[in-house]
Description:
alpha+beta
Amino acid sequence: MMRTILFFGLIAWVSVHAAPAMNVYTINTADQSAYHAWARASGPAMGESVNASLVGICKPITGAYNDDDLYAYMFTDTLADALAALPGNDVMKAEVAKLEISRKVMAREVLSLVKTQSAVTLKVGQTDAIWNTLAHVPNVDAYVKAVTAMEKAFHKNGFNDVGIQIFVGHSGGVSGMVMSGVIAKTPARLGEAFDSLGESWAKGPYKAVVAKRKVARGLSAMCETVYVK
């Protein structure tokens, strides 16, 4: 479902370019505070049980389909680990059994990470702001090259604390689509980076990015890391 990602198909492309992967679970619950508390307590055990490299949870700010939606996610080193984790295991089932609030899993999605970022180091207990743009992209390699150039322009002009990562989708409404995620410490910092796109140094790189995609939807969120391997 498209609502899941906003926050990757191109299976043949990914098979040639092996990359880390991510599972995203769209959770709808009115008791988001309790779900966050549970994720902090149970995320590490679940992450370790599936060989995850990172586990986190995002609360949408703009662009969500439902106000009560949350996005729980797990990064893995391979797509094989990501797919193996989706059915769950005994550890995951035991941890989920501890969650005593009403909630509904709206969707489960699998993504491949084809461009990483290093501007923001993710740490347990840390929250970061993201802006995800889901788009139709005819040429993934060219798009990755253009986004990388945009990121370098940011870093050369005072925004070395802003990173951009790229995913491609394998399931649901985002199959065959590409999502770019801009990450910074705060929503305000994201806004400052976007404000700078009108500057002379940014116009060329940004124009190249825009020319290579047709945007379907955007979403912003605050994401908390609950486990790092």
